[in-house]
Write a structure and sequence with these properties.
Organism: Veillonella fallax
Helix content: 40-55%
Strand content: 15-25%
Protein name: Phosphatase
Number of strands: 14
Family: Belongs to the GppA/Ppx family.
Pfam families: Ppx-GppA (PF02541), Ppx-GppA_III (PF21447)
Largest sheet: 6 strands, mixed
Number of helices: 22
Shape: globular
Distance between the termini: 42 Å
Length: 521
């Protein structure tokens, strides 16, 4: 779907080590032109991990820089923009005050990105470039994207068009360093201690990663660029560089224990940058040692680049978005498999609920809500693994405790509430989980619960009696025509029971009709 005209917009980012603005023109997924880019190195992350908050002086600095960026946008005549905040705002104890002051002083609203979504935007750009443009990965072999930031570590594995694995750890480079005081960091034993610390940190994931037979590991962002410079790749302007693992190991071994002080002395790095780079190098080496990949790929793609590109792709509604969503649905199925759900029943509920969502677009059900409904359908039975009694409660906690790739924290809350209510109970403000939602989220939950319930009813016995379903709306009645040669008494009774809530929410009657010829008696 082509855009009617060139899309010009600005993407601004408040990060732990830099603030930036990117002004772009987007004509298509392969035709994105950066008109201007400006960035300012900052030390907000160091302050955050030391004090858990940002000072008034720092907030004033953020607003001052943003005012300069607003003037730059005005100079280019750009009125369409988005401002994103990552770890440094997301995890600040005084987050509300920061967001309020930014709005008061600049008139700009900050969209705070949680860690899974932060990794997702980088992955989307990296995956597209490597598979569609550079053709760097073998579709028969697995690739690991290792995303190390100041606040966390994301690990994403893909093979061909399939996402195989995604985990996130809230132990990034600065967070690790701030776990030790200055005296400990200056100790001669520190390199060994932090290596053991990081080795233990990735321990639970090591065996699972080894099962994928990973051929390449990709590291992206500023730290990846710094590492290539340390290995002699000076003045390199390539987006992606491939290096032999032995070359990186040679760099690590040359230090006889990597420390921030050694990095500062050998490469004249500032202390703040050395404190970020040191644990990144050690963690990268730990992953390489555990997996033994054939090649290492260093990418310059940053969060700002990822979100800037993604904004245009999403606005265009490029077909690549559907490929990403299918990958995320695969990961949701992998999560469900870990809890031994009924895969065939879940697939039926997903199939039926997708039909309802498409038919109800005109009833205030956007396409994105339909996608959330699919994810909820896949995960609605995970709580049964814990206990069949009150499994909706257990499912809620499993979903909330799982990083679901491609969903924001707010969307995950919607999915968690849908799985909580999918079997019984009515969404109600007396319930703490539902009451904590915004009004828009509550509307999403009620509509998706109504759909999931009638979808589940069509396979109430989990024995796939109904082979085909077609929908038709007439005179504000939604007729559900089903093809079957079996006794569907259970399905009929369950459907009649759950149709009452559906009618209440959508303001239309829903009727199950046996037969696929769309002829209502």
């Amino acid at each position: 779907m082509a855009l009617p005209k060139t899309l010009r917009y600005a993407v601004l980012h408040v990060g732990s080590s830099s603030m930036s603005i990117t002004i772009l023109e987007y004509k298509g997924i392969d035709d994105v032109r950066v008109i201007d880019y400006a960035a300012r190195e900052v030390t907000f992350g160091e302050e955050l991990f030391q004090t858990s908050r940002l000072s008034f002086k720092t907030i004033e600095e953020i607003c001052h820089i943003l005012k300069g960026y607003k003037q730059l946008m005005a100079d280019y005549g750009v009125s369409r923009s988005k401002l994103y905040g990552t770890t440094v705002i997301r995890e600040a104890a005084n987050r509300r005050s920061i967001l309020d002051q930014i709005y008061i002083q600049t008139g700009m609203r900050v969209e705070v990105i949680d860690m899974p979504k932060e990794v997702y935007y980088k992955y989307a750009l990296l995956y597209y470039k490597m598979t569609h443009q550079y053709k760097l990965t073998d579709p028969t072999k697995a690739t690991l994207f290792l995303d190390i930031t100041s606040g966390g570590v994301g690990l994403t594995v893909w093979r061909g068009e399939n996402l195989l694995f995604q985990r996130n750890m809230h132990s990034g480079s600065l967070r690790v360093m701030e776990s030790f005081n200055r005296n400990q960091r200056s100790s001669i034993s520190f390199p060994r201690a932090i290596t053991e610390y990081l080795h233990r940190m990735i321990g639970p994931l090591r065996e699972e990663l080894q099962t994928f037979n990973i051929n390449s590991i990709v590291l992206s962002g500023d730290e990846a660029q710094y590492m290539t410079h340390l290995m002699g790749q000076e003045n390199n302007k390539e987006d992606i560089i491939t290096i032999e693992p032995e070359r990186f190991k040679g760099l690590i071994n040359s230090f006889d224990g990597v420390t921030a002080t050694k990095l500062m002395n050998r490469y004249k790095l500032p202390e703040y940058k050395a404190n970020i780079l040191m644990p990144t190098m050690i963690l990268f080496n730990e992953i390489i040692t555990a997996i033994e990949p054939k090649s290492l790929i260093f990418s310059s793609f940053s969060f700002s680049q990822g979100i800037s590109w993604f904004y245009g792709v999403e606005t265009e509604n490029n077909p690549f978005m559907y490929q990403l969503r299918e990958q995320n649905a695969q990961l949701a199925r992998a999560v469900a498999a870990r809890y031994h759900t009924d895969r065939i029943h879940d697939a039926e509920v997903e199939r039926f609920s997708s039909l309802f969502c498409k038919a109800l677009r005109h009833k205030g059900l956007p396409e994105r809500w339909g996608y959330l409904c699919r994810i909820a359908a896949i995960l609605c039975s995970v709580g049964k693994f814990v206990n069949l009694r009150n499994h909706g409660e257990h499912a809620y906690h499993i979903v909330m405790g799982t990083d679901i790739f491609g969903l924001s924290e707010e969307e995950k809350q919607v999915v968690a509430n849908v799985v909580y209510y999918h079997y019984k109970g009515t969404p109600n403000d007396d319930d703490a989980y539902f009451n904590a939602l915004t009004e828009l989220q509550k509307i999403q939950v009620t509509k998706l619960v109504a759909i999931i319930r009638v979808a589940c009813a069509l396979d109430a016995g989990s024995n796939q009696k109904i082979s085909e379903v077609t929908l038709e709306e007439r005179d504000n009645v939604l007729y559900v025509f089903c093809r079957t040669n079996e006794d569907i008494s259970l399905e009929w009774w369950t459907f009649d029971r759950d149709s009452e809530y559906f009618t209440e929410i959508f303001g239309m009657e829903i009727v199950l009709v046996r037969g696929g010829d769309r002829h209502v008696q």
